[in-house]
Amino acid sequence: MSITTCSNNSAYATSGALIYVAILMLGGMEKLNWSSTVELLPALVIIVMIPLSFSIADGIALGFLTYVSLKLATGQIRNISSGAWFLTLIFISKFIFL
């Protein structure tokens, strides 16, 4: 088997693991606050974007960005922790510079 054949199959090999992680995350969905859209949507973005982006880090980053964006849009700025602000700045810089 040549190196190009292996590299062509790497996306197929990693997608199974990413889908498995997404399925594991589905087990925690029952604990989500289904009555609050601001709390629910970022979790759903993470669960959907991990397999679609083929990256756990990108899926989590998009979830953090969604969380902070929704909190800002609904006027709940005081409810955003300093850790969420910090990670949001890190993820924004990751998407801009990488």
Report on this model:
With 98 residues, the chain is mainly α. The protein has helices spanning 3-26, 37-53, 56-73, 82-97. 77% of the residues lie in helices and 0% in strands. The protein has one domain. It is flat. The protein is built from four helices and no strands.
Q: Given the C-alpha coordinates, what overall shape results?
A: flat
Radius of gyration: 16 Å
Number of domains as seen in the coordinates: 1
Specify the oligomeric state: single chain
Briefly note the structural class of the backbone: mainly alpha
N- to C-terminal separation?
Answer: 32 Å
Largest sheet: none
Question: In a few lines, what is going on in this structure?
Answer:
The protein is mainly α and 98 residues long. The protein has helices at residues 3-26, 37-53, 56-73, 82-97.
Topology:
Blueprint: H1 3-26, H2 37-53, H3 56-73, H4 82-97
Helix pairs in contact: 1-2, 2-3, 3-4
